[in-house]
Amino acid sequence: MAFSGALTLTDLNDYITPSQACIKPVEQLNPVKEAETEPGAASTAIRIDSGGAYYEVSTEDTSRFSAKKLEPAQISLNDCLACSGCITSAESVLITLQSHTEVLNFLAANPPPSDPAHKVPVLSVSPQSLASLAASLASSSSSPRPIPLPQILARIRKFAREVLGFEHVWDTTFARHLALLEHVREFRERKAHSSSAGSGSGRDDVGRLPMLASACPGWICYAEKTHAEMLPFIARTKSPQQVMGALVKYWLAPKWGKRPDGVYHVALMPCYDKKLEASRSDFYNEQYHTRDVDCVITTGEFERLLREKGCDLSVPVPDSEEEEGIPDLLEHRGTSSGSYLQSIIDALSSSPSHPQDGLTLSTSTLRADHTTYTLSARASGSSQPVFKGATCYGFRNLQNVVRRVGREGGAYDYVEVMACPGGCVNGGGQLKPPPALDGEGKAWTRRVEEAYWSPSSEAASPQEKRARADRLAARVLAEMCRPDGEYFRTSYRAVESEVVGLAVKW
Amino acid sequence: MDVDLPANVECVAELQGHDDRAWHTAWNPTKPILASCSADKTVRLYHYGRNDDEPDPGSISFKHVNTIQTGHTKTVRAIAWSPSGRTLATASFDANIGIWEREGAEEEEDEDGNPSHTVHSGEWECMSLLEGHETECKSVAYSSSGNLLASCSRDKTVWVWEVHPDSDFECMGVMMEHSQDVKQVAWHPTEEILASASYDDTIKLYIDDPSEDWFCFATLTGHASTVWSLAFSPNGRYLASCSDDLTIRIWERVEQYKWECVEVIEGVHERSIYSIAWGTGEGRKGEDSLGWLASTGGDGKINVFEFHAPPTTSETSGTRPPPSHHLLARVTSAHGVHDVNSVSWCPRQGLRNILSTAGDDGIVKVWKITPPKES
Hints:
The complex is a heterodimer. Chain A is an alpha/beta fold.
């Protein structure tokens, strides 16, 4: 199954580990100059030495012993994405292509700002990563109260700028704000289309209902590889990470007088599969040979980086001013996995067709990680459901989503699907529980959840901050406006299995 | 057949018809139906009844009444009836589980052994397909209440499904505890305890945490090779397992969540022991009887053991001795030179001395164990 094998490194037991060997064969990458003989007459063989290296040798002229060492095949993340078999061998690729050492290497090799080849290094931090770091710091200190996320962000900002050499550090909540706006817009499009097309499902080019969340790359990967029939249901709105990518490379970079490839964008995420997401071809600019997110590192990798650099996040710093450009830490009530469902509920509740006092929300938790949300309108004494949504997290619940949507489809209008039990605060890339909570994964997840929602002691009122964010969002949308909505939407495609499980132990 | 053994074994039916190796058989718990499955992707159903006529009163005859062309694209490896006897589940190497019911099954209520007429009316229909396993599904089992269905696969996972009305299923758990192929799942006869046997040489036991998820509460280690099959004793106190290491182990529930190996039976099979089944047996048995355990495997042998509970614990000694057992009957070359893949006891009243086997020869055989008359 298609979850990154790397996820299993963190002792989560909700993933199926792929067992098959990589099918990508050894291939010749450097062009071989054809021998000066008749075409087709060259005859060569491949020899393998004791060290396991491959050599191409001529079988014609053994007196002139010439063996050319063949390059070992390079497996890119895209090869792995295109294969439904193993992600196991992608682990090493993930670690070499998108790792904290890769980030350090880049920063060390980055020419000074005066050099035209200088790239502006930008760090984008997910709020779940901040919560994981906050919970971890709280568990190792005497104070049981988690450090507020703005303070964690301020410390990271200081460290990333002063020690690592990043020029800009933001969190990804403004990008999420944009993603949620786009998400609601997409839901409305689908809803309008499905009701205009009569009962049943809409056309596939608009997308169907129920709309399924698209922010979890583990879920996207799994759906593309094993449940292609789910793809028309999955929202095409980009995840906050990729919205941030577009924002940094196509909205901020021009303001700095940089082309998209003049910026090096690192994202700090709770999840290994975010690396796979960043390397999707959809997020690669052919013209500039650059990705919207150049490198993703997990919270765990970031902590390692802190340790290697001797940085101590437990040392308080003065609360930093917000960086110019993007507001910090916008709260979106709902879930710690991005509040996708809640944003739709809020939008429906405040829409003029349903005056707020006319709608009631009822929720029901069916089992761990599966909660349903029903919005009902009171009409002539009786209560009519106008919207049914659910949050479904973890592999088990994901199976039921796939079954339900595939079977009847109509039970829900929207499902917030996440592959990790507990959602993104329990992502595979998050920090492990402290020794005191070893083996108490769920208790640890609750701590991170608490840290995620811990109130920030900010001067500005949330309403005022929200209003500012809305104004900025409107500006961004206007400035990045494109009729096809390309900056904030993406697409999915089914991946056919090519793996023959012959080499597997029975 | 070993003449010095106490019970007599006779082959009462030899059911041909599968075009490829026969993997598994399952007795319907409420109706006189025996089902078998095969690498030929079909399930064959046989009706059986007691002949009261001459020349052989009391004998049992079998009649093929139905063949389900399952539509599975690969081998049907295992089958299981729901406790109601209405639903049949098929586990296939195509990674899916099929759920089968008969059209108009409600009307037909004749259960007392009349062949023909009633039994082969409606067609068997696939009511649901449970997808989710990545690779070959190896075993499927209904819990004693019929509310849960478990399956396992070469993908190393064990799944628990909740059975809903109208052939709907909800996935309740996906347990990724084994490090290798999972060969079989088995439910406790009264409680919702699930056991799984694996190529990783271990047995794992699972229960539900209603506020969370299904989880593995115990791992039983001891077998030196693949554990092929599991069977709980009818009273639920013991679990038997058989293995490639040529042993049968008996595990006892010593505490609520603790099972310990109390007996290792060796030297009764010369090749891999593929299947075991534990039934109550038939005939006059003492209060202390724990029933009959049948085992079979690659050596073509069927062994039937009778188990007895140990004498009640004397307050002074403290430790409880293991249950005693003795070999009741044995068949050699049960399917000629072929491997015997599975063994199952008939669970129906008065027929609990009947067992069926499925062999690589594509044949299903039915055997009757006749214990000695008490003198």
